Amino acid sequence: MSKPYVVGIDIGGTNTVFGIVDARGVVLASSSIKTRKHSTIEAYLDELHTELTKLLEANDAIGKIHGIGIGAPNANYYTGTIESGVNLPWPTPIPLAQLVSDKFGIPVSITNDANAAAIGEMTYGAARGLKDFIMITLGTGVGSGIVINGQLVYGHDGFAGELGHIIVKRNNGRLCGCGRCGCLETYCSATGVARTAREFLEARSNEPSLLRNIPTEDITSKDVYDAAIAGDKLAKDVFEFTGDILGAALADFTVFSAPEAFILFGGLAKSGELLMKPLRESMEKNMIKIWKGKVKILLSELKEADAAVLGASALGWEAKQMPTPSAIPVTPTPAVPQVTPATTPQA
Known about the structure:
Blueprint: E1 5-11, E2 15-22, E3 27-34, H1 41-58, E4 65-72, H2 96-104, E5 108-112, H3 113-124, E6 133-138, E7 142-148, E8 151-152, H4 185-188, H5 190-203, H6 221-229, H7 233-257, E9 261-265, H8 273-286, E10 296-299, H9 304-318
Parallel strand pairs: 1-4, 4-5, 6-9, 9-10
Antiparallel strand pairs: 1-2, 2-3, 6-7, 7-8
Helix pairs in contact: 3-9, 5-6, 5-7, 6-7, 7-8
């Protein structure tokens, strides 16, 4: 292979992680930049170019990159555009594939960040051998990647699978960045957990809590986790509340595609039994009888940074076949692309 590497880029609401990946699926080197510190997409791309170029030079990979694959919020596989990145600081739409390709002079393909994580998990992680599963990413928001019969579901316009924006609270639900109220991600993301903690602290003003030692607006999901591990009842109740909502949502998602497993990925998924116990109980309590006891809940087997980077990198191998985003019509219904990378990782 004349160009033995690809670059995988995972753009999150807080951080952007990127890495150089070889044909066996090994991440040779990786680095990151802050997504939110840039007020414009141009400034962001300038830093990405600078830092990724440094990584390529340090690993003797200049001129050896076959393609770049990107996972980003609301990224459309078909158009190469971020259409509505509610967790990103820049105006949308953003023709990201074209901008990055122009910046680096390398073919680029993009998909939703959660879809990229699902591809990585299916190829290298807990979903190996599974043909029907749903990836749930619990980060700044709640993302999902739906795989049915071995194929990632994109829908007719490239936006299928936004399960984080299923409404779970119809009355008096929290305002979501998408503009609706009561979305799953306003309750079960890392930011949702912090928001719940603040609401509990206000509603239960006479109850002591370790979280009262932190300025209210500075509370993070990690603070809530640390307090819960230390035995703080209010913090434990936050996780109970979160797990109950997420479990019920997974039971509803099962009705849609009957997955063999849900795979949880992201920092919040590492909360252990604080989250998993109420999640499992709620899922089984709300599950239709024919699926009770059938659907597994698995944790990602990949390092947090690697999952989306590896999934995005799989798109890098096919990037040369992708037309430029401006050449792709939005209206016609395209064929659903295969998600299996051209290379298979070695054991």
